[in-house]
Design a protein that fits this description.
Elements lengths: L10 E2 L6 E7 L12 E10 L4 E4 H4 L3 E4 L7 H7 L7 E6 L20 E11 L1 E2 L8 E7 L12 E10 L2 E11 L10 H7 L7 E6 L21 E11 L9 H20 L3 H15 L4 H21 L3 H14 L4 H14 L2 H14 L4 H45 L35
Antiparallel strand pairs: 1-2, 2-6, 3-4, 3-5, 3-7, 6-7, 8-9, 9-12, 10-11, 10-13, 12-13
Helix pairs in contact: 4-5, 4-6, 5-6, 6-7, 6-8, 7-8, 8-9, 9-10
């Protein structure tokens, strides 16, 4: 590496002389990588006598690692955190900040002081999105020495400063329970990121639309659809929610009822995504309880989940929730009815018919089920007639093809023994049927 703009003063990064930095070439800009960033750099390592023991430059492949995760020697974490893009420097590292008394392999002896010449190439911000899609990027502005982080449903007190371009669209203090942020206007990306924050930490978050205001944007804030926004977030205080495994049966049932009631409240407010989170948490607590003690409450939780997914037009999840109810209670009229509606949406009319007939058998006066059965009979007749015509047309086409082949073979004076079979049209293939649905949409508040 060539030396330009050499700074002759060494900086003591460790405060005890253990890690010294000499800048060979100034970097550009003012930004520095923060904890969690994935940095890319070149290095050449030597002993004090100049003996080289390793070099990414010679390999021609940059070295990458996550800063501040203790995946490299201490001196690297300390020194790289002070480097700007394009900067070149030399780190002099005492043994306690390098490989210590053990050394490393045949090339680095015990208690060796090392020199590393570094060149910062680039870095990427820490990705906090659930599937590592770079939808939530974090840049730590002010780190914290605290170790604990909030867990799901923890009560948090935060300061939020939201920016779109140069426009600050919100600046406020807010307290809420993680999982319920949407009820006070906190976007999902902030909620997800907060579970990785330490107390008193301040970080800048870059949120893609799916973790911010989505395709619709926010008219009040002047944010267009599909916009990427920034939030500077400070975690003031937090109180972790109770871990489910620490509670006895009575305490678990109490918490389960609390979250079930929260879910019911959010259903009535038509906040179905938040309601689903509450119902999931309720079921987490119920997993600690004997089956008989949890039976009634678990049934209500799954029925309400089915209702939420029905409102969100997700028939597969409706079916899953109703299946869970019927594993517990095979006489649940609501579970059969809602599953029947789900089967109708999925185009499985025979299965829907069976479920509505179960409702009618359990509750003969149920007019909603009777109406659905009448509607399904009509739809099944239509589907069967359509299918019969399809197979009739297929039979005609094959018959015509056979006839043409026979005539062709006769013309060639070839004796052919031909035969044709019968086609029996199956009566159970129906697709893409979208009937009008009669809803039983009351919240189950047992």
């Amino acid at each position: 590496m060539s030396e330009q703009n050499v700074t002759e003063t060494e900086l003591d990064l460790s405060g005890d002389g253990g890690v010294k930095k000499l800048i060979l070439q100034e970097g550009v800009g003012e930004e520095l990588p923060s904890k969690g960033c994935r940095v890319s750099l070149h290095y050449t390592g030597t002993l004090l006598d100049g003996t080289q023991f390793d070099s990414s430059v010679d390999r021609g492949v940059p070295f990458e690692f996550e800063l501040g995760r203790e995946s490299v020697i201490k001196a690297f974490d300390m020194g790289v955190a002070t480097m700007k893009k394009g900067e070149k420097c030399v780190l002099t590292c005492a043994p306690e900040y390098a490989y210590g008394a053990a050394g490393s392999g045949p090339n680095i002896p015990p208690n060796a002081t090392l020199k590393f010449e570094l060149e910062m190439l680039s870095w990427e911000l820490e990705d906090l999105s659930p599937d590592r899609t770079k939808g939530i990027l974090r840049d730590v502005v002010k780190a914290s020495d605290k170790k604990r982080t909030p867990n799901e449903f923890a009560h948090v007190h935060v300061r939020l400063v939201g920016k779109y371009g140069d426009n600050v669209f919100e600046d406020r203090e807010v307290k809420f329970d993680l999982g319920e942020g949407a009820t006070c206007g906190v976007v999902s990306g902030v909620e997800i990121a907060l579970e990785k924050f330490h107390q008193y930490e301040t970080s800048r978050l870059i949120l893609r639309p799916e973790f911010a205001f989505g395709a619709n944007g926010n008219e009040e804030f002047g944010i267009p659809g599909n916009a990427t926004v920034e939030y500077t977030v400070t975690l003031r205080e937090f109180e972790r929610s109770q871990d489910t495994w620490k509670l006895d049966t009575a305490e678990s049932l109490q918490q389960a009822q609390l979250f079930k009631d929260k879910g019911a409240k959010y259903i009535k407010e038509e906040k179905y995504q938040v309601a689903i989170k509450m119902l999931k948490r309720s079921n987490d607590y119920l997993s600690n309880c004997p089956a008989e003690d949890a039976k009634a409450l678990k049934t209500a939780v799954y029925l309400n989940k089915a209702l939420c997914y029905q409102k969100l037009e997700d028939p597969f999840e409706v079916k899953q929730a109703c299946d869970s109810v019927l594993e517990i209670d095979q006489t649940s009229v609501k579970a059969f009815y809602r599953r029947g509606q789900a089967f109708m949406s999925l185009g499985n009319l025979e299965a829907a018919m069976k479920d509505f007939q179960e409702v009618q058998q359990l509750e003969p006066s149920n007019k909603a089920a009777q109406n659905q059965i009448t509607l399904l009979k009509h739809k099944l007749r239509e589907a069967n007639e359509k299918e019969r015509k399809i197979y009739a047309n297929m039979f005609t086409k094959f018959a015509n093809a056979d006839k043409q082949r026979e005539e062709s073979e006769r013309n060639q004076n070839t004796d052919v023994l031909s035969s044709c079979g019968e086609w029996n049209a199956p009566e159970d293939t129906m697709k893409n049927v979208h009937p009008n649905i009669v809803m039983l949409d009351n919240v189950d508040d047992k």
